[in-house]
Design goal:
The structure holds two protein chains of two kinds. Chain A has no helices and nine strands. By secondary structure, chain A is mainly beta. The chains are: A mainly beta, B mainly beta.
Amino acid sequence: DAKTTQPPSMDCAEGRAANLPCNHSTISGNEYVYWYRQIHSQGPQYIIHGLKNNETNEMASLIITEDRKSSTLILPHATLRDTAVYYCIVRVTNFGNEKLTFGTGTRLTIIP
Amino acid sequence: GAVVSQHPSRVICKSGTSVKIECRSLDFQATTMFWYRQFPKQSLMLMATSNEGSKATYEQGVEKDKFLINHASLTLSTLTVTSAHPEDSSFYICSAISGYTFGSGTRLTVV
C-alpha cells in the first residue's frame, strides 16, 4: 500500500472548520483515500473515502487534489466531540477484504 | 447497519491465565474479520486476519500459538490470549468488512 504522511497534531477552535491534510504522493491510480478517526479508548470510526472526486457526507468533506498526491479532510464546524486521532489511509479495494495499515495519524484537539 | 460488537470492553487477568475476546457481527455475515492491537500512544497494528472456516493468517512477528483465533461461524470471531503476561496488556480491536466497521475495543490488563 502507498504510505501517507500526516502532521502529528493540530488544534482547531470550536465552531471553526478543521482542515486535516494528508500527503500520499506515491498513490496508485486504483487506490482509494480513506479517512478514519479514533476517539480515546474507542475503536476507529470510518469517516469518508474517495478515489478522484471530492466527496461529502454528513460527517465531513474530502478534497482530493487533481494529481491525487494529497487530500484534505474538512470538518466544517468542529465540536469538542471531534477531538480524536485522525488517520488517512490509501487502499486498493472499496471496502473489500483487504488488510489496512494505519500510520500515526493526526491528533486533532478542538479548543473551546 | 454493519455493527460489530466486541466483548468484553475491559478485562483484568492474572499473569499466566488465558483471556478470550469475542467479536460479533450483529446484522451481517462476516467471512473475514481483522484483529488489531494498539499500545498506549501508538497506532493500530494488524495482528491477524480471521477467516471463517479456515486458519487465521498472522502478521509477521505475531505468535500464532499465543494469540489463538477461531472464526467458527459467519458472525463470530474470537481471539484468545494464552498464558498472558504483562507485556500483552494492550487495547485489542476487531474489524469487519475491512475497515467499514470496528469493534469498540477490549482493554486487556495483565497483572
